[in-house]
Amino acid sequence: MGGTIHAYFDCVSPYSYFAFLHLRKHRAVLATHGVKIEIHPVFLGGINVGSGNTPPWKLPAKARYSEYDRKNAVRYFGLPEFTAPSFFPILSLLPQRAITYIKAHYPASKFEETFLLLWQWLFYRHEDISQPAVLTRLLTEDAGFTAHEAETIIAATGEQKWKDALLARTKEALDRGAFGAPWFWVVREGPDGKEEETSMFFGSDRFVAIIQYRYNNMYDHSDRQCLFPNRFHYIWTFLNLPFDDIKIHPGPLKANELIDSSNNDNKSKDDMTESKAKAKL
What we know:
This is Glutathione S-transferase kappa 1. The protein has helices at 14-25, 27-31, 44-51, 60-77, 93-105, 108-123, 132-142, 147-156, 160-175, 207-214, 232-238, 255-280, and strands at residues 3-9, 35-41, 183-189, 195-201. With 281 residues, it is an alpha+beta fold. The chain has a domain at 6-185: Glutaredoxin. It has a four-stranded mixed sheet, sandwiched between helices. Strand 3 and strand 4 (195-201) form a beta hairpin. Helix 6 (108-123) packs across helix 7. The protein is globular, with a radius of gyration of 24 Å.
């Protein structure tokens, strides 16, 4: 029983933001199953290059679809609408190195709250957090760091130690099969508490978003523990966790009558086909 979800995120990825919020929301219930969450900052640009992947914003068709997909995800998660800034995408090395340094020197709660602010400043405020002056303002105005702490953090982003730390974590993600973000490496433990099996997860299972967009009253809104477009229910299954999947609500029509009607229509068509065949004979 139990395990660890290693989540690899970059602030340039809005889907990393959705995943981060979802994991934080369900951390307590995951803990009751002995499942821990480890958040790892990575450089998505390095993952794309290292894996040979082409990011969506470089392919016009994908970029166009991403706008629809983002709106579906925002609607599903109940978040305020946002748009990518005009200068998107940013080179996320500076903020990702900064958050790597913060993770190593501050409590986990401080690290996570600051990480969330990176997404919020980029996508909601349209602030270019890849610029040292902007990132400094984020740290002092919203994240609660002193001016001296912010100066130390910004200075650390230019030090080889923290460049290497982000690079090492990015390479770890690549070694674990990553080709984008968010990326998940999940460890399942056996009854003895030792590693039993590992698996990787990525992707966009968006049946929930499609149902919500077209048939908003068809599924149960009361329990969203497993409903998430980034395949968290696959992770729950891998970890042998109990959960409820999508519940489709019945509509106003009577299913039996529809099925019988459909069967009768098919039978009539079969009879007509058989009659025509006999006539030809």
